[in-house]
Amino acid sequence: MWRRIREWAGSIRRDVHALFLAARDPRTPWYAKAFALAVAAYALSPIDLIPDFIPVLGYLDEVILLPPAILLAIRLVPPEVMAEHRAAAMRAQGQPSSRAGAAAIVGIWLLVAALVWWFWPHAAR
């Protein structure tokens, strides 16, 4: 059972990477790019809708919300584009991860938080 869960988690990780690659492909329609990029950013982001330190509830967004969003994003991307990027994501699985990429994602979330903080009090006036 644990082996199947690990395989499933690995396939989700691969598909999220493939969606990120497909979002940057010019053959992908704009609406699929936007949704795929949003799903990949949320899946790869260290910031969650429900923080992971909250017992049980912290992982519900990853278990309940993320898989259907990934499946929908995969369906929006043309099949030949998705197959090509799945193969590229599979080849990249053994390569080391990028700290610069992680820093960029954290920087984007901090920028979004700063913009929300800046405009929130000004919108109430």
Automatic annotation (TrEMBL):
Membrane-related topology note: Multi-pass membrane protein
UniProtKB keywords: Membrane, Transmembrane, Transmembrane helix
Top-level taxon of the source organism: Bacteria
UniProt source species: Teichococcus wenyumeiae
Domain DUF1232: 32-67
Database matches in InterPro entries: DUF1232
Protein name, UniProt field: DUF1232 domain-containing protein
GO cellular component entries: endomembrane system
Pfam families associated with the record: DUF1232 (PF06803)
UniProt subcellular location: Endomembrane system
Membrane-spanning parts: 98-120
Signal peptide region: none
Keyword match Ligase: no
Chief place where the protein resides: membrane
